[in-house]
Amino acid sequence: MKKVINLTINGSPYEVEVEPNLTLNALLRDRLGLTGTKISCAEGECGVCTVLIDGKPMLSCSMLAVAANGTDIITIEGLAENGELHKIQKKFIELGAIQCGYCSPGMMLAVKALLDENPNPTRDDVKKAIGGNLCRCTGYVKIVDAALAAAKA
Amino acid sequence: MFRTLKPFEYLEPKSLEEATGALSKYGTEAKVYAAGVDLVPRMRRRVIQPKCIINIQNVEELDDVIAGNGDGVRIGTLASKRSIEISDIIKEKYFVLHEAIANIVSIQVKTQGTAVGNLCVATPASDVAPALYVLDAKLNVFGPSGQRLIPIDEFYLGVGKTVLEPNEIITEILLPAPAPNTGGAFKKLVRSAEDIAKVNAAASITMEKGVCKDVRIALGSVAPTVVRAKKAEEVLRGKKIDQKLIEKAAKVAADEVTPISDLRSTADYRKETSAVLVKRILAKAIERANG
Description:
The structure holds 2 protein chains of 2 kinds. By secondary structure, chain A is an alpha+beta fold. Chain A has helices at 24-31, 87-94, 104-117, 123-129, 140-152, and strands spanning 3-9, 12-18, 50-53, 56-59, 72-74. Chain A has 2 domains: 3-78, Ubiquitin-like (UB roll) (Roll); 87-152, [2Fe-2S]-binding domain (DNA polymerase, domain 1, Orthogonal Bundle). Chain A has 5 helices and 5 strands, in the order ββαβββαααα. Chain A has a 5-stranded mixed beta sheet, covered by helices on one side. The longest helix of chain A is centred in the last third of the chain and has 14 residues, at 104-117. Chain B is built from 11 helices and 14 strands. The mean pLDDT of chain B is 95. Chain B folds into 3 domains: 9-55, Uridine Diphospho-n-acetylenolpyruvylglucosamine Reductase, domain 2 (2-Layer Sandwich); 66-175, Uridine Diphospho-n-acetylenolpyruvylglucosamine Reductase, domain 3 (2-Layer Sandwich); 182-290, 2-Layer Sandwich (Enolase-like, domain 1). Chain B is globular. Chain B has helices at residues 16-26, 39-44, 81-85, 88-93, 95-102, 107-112, 115-121, 128-134, 230-236, 243-256, 267-290, and strands at 9-11, 30-33, 52-55, 66-69, 72-76, 138-143, 146-151, 156-158, 161-162, 169-175, 182-189, 199-208, 211-220, 227-228. The longest helix of chain B has 24 residues, at 267-290. In chain B, the strands form 4 sheets. A 5-stranded antiparallel beta sheet of chain B has the order 4-5-10-6-7. Classes of the chains: A alpha+beta, B alpha+beta.
């Protein structure tokens, strides 16, 4: 049986009718066209599906859309403001931290959650914050550099 | 890989009575949903195909509060592992639990997933469970016949199996007050940091003038359920502690585990490293107890 849920996504209110077996990831990507949020392992291991729910990094692949009713969600599409990229996005581009790009949305949202909580992180803090995000280009050094540069920007 | 989940009936009970009523109706065909972090991937892989999902996030009596409870602490069923990790009272009084969760690398998994959910999955590789064993935790459980308390070391029956009836719900974790001069430590061995444990171990020890007043040692991933190394504890309890005795206890602990060989390790490796881990966590726990 379908259920109507109300969400705020990237600052805009949404009222959508969902089947209970729809994951939040499928809602974002397939229904709402917000394909910036990726899907890869679909088991909660890789972190590419990360979105911020009420400010906290969570796995959209491992959550039912219906259970996200009433939450405030930020996806990678919601990071830029007034047509200008967020400082995290700018630094990822400037410092070559966007490689194949597939982990980048989840990675940047994990960094956003960190900087919201701790504006002056150490290198170790950044590594811990992205512990749940795998980069198969294995270019973590530039990602950590970009996160630290964004903190200082 | 299946991208979609098979259809199921979905309920959002507002009270424990409603939730356990639904669980009584569906029995083993129902699964409780607290955060989805374990449940949803298993449903996607068709490991389980529940007919009914019961989301307990809106149950009025359940909460995510971590707070003092008499001399001890209670952790609400909906508390995330991350909120437990960063809780001041947990860091201050139950450091071993903080340390166990701090060693789980995925912030997302910790932020979304609950500690109680982790216990209910009943994986032998849980990092939370050995820490709760050495803290002498109790689980408060609600069912159709009312409330009951289950000591953590009576909770597990086997891989994926617990003493919870299909229509019972854990409502909180209760931790007793630690005795003065108590220290704890947790360590695990992993293939790579984000993987589950090959072997993990937790200890809590109470010291008085160099003598071990009380001690608890628990190991994970080395048997179908968490193992309390009670014989190793007996080696230490009431004795003046020195390095030789720690090493003896570590060897005895390794004899108490019954590991298997699998893709992560061989049984022999797990047995040998159990002794190494126990030796190291005991040293650390004693240092913290004395500190």
